[in-house]
TrEMBL record:
Keywords: 3Fe-4S, Electron transport, Iron, Iron-sulfur, Metal-binding, Transport. This is Ferredoxin. Gene3D superfamilies: 3.30.70.20. Ferredoxins are iron-sulfur proteins that transfer electrons in a wide variety of metabolic reactions. InterPro entries: 3Fe4S_ferredoxin (IPR001080), 4Fe4S_Fe-S-bd (IPR017896), Fe-S_cluster_ET (IPR051269). Its cofactor is [3Fe-4S] cluster. Transmembrane segments: none annotated.
Amino acid sequence: MEPLRLSVDRERCAGAGMCALTAPEVFDQDDEEGLVVLLHPAPPPQHRAAARMAAGLCPAGAIALNSPDPTDS
Ligand code: SF4
C-alpha cells in the first residue's frame, strides 16, 4: 500500500479543530492556542482514510499530504 506522509503548517492553521475531530488519532490541538499538533506524520493504514479526509476538510489548507517519492532518498 502507498505510504502516506503528512505535514502541517501551524502558521496557516486557524485552530478550527476539524482535523482533530475527524482524525483524532492523527491530529490534536495544543492547549494554549488550539493550533494543530501532528501526532502521526506517517499514519498507520487504519488511520489514513481519516487523515486524508481531515486534510480535505481543513478550512485553512494547513494539512499537506504527500507520498514519498521512491526515487528520492
Ligand atoms: S482543521 Fe486545519 S485549521 Fe483546523 S485545527 Fe486542523 S489544521 Fe488547523
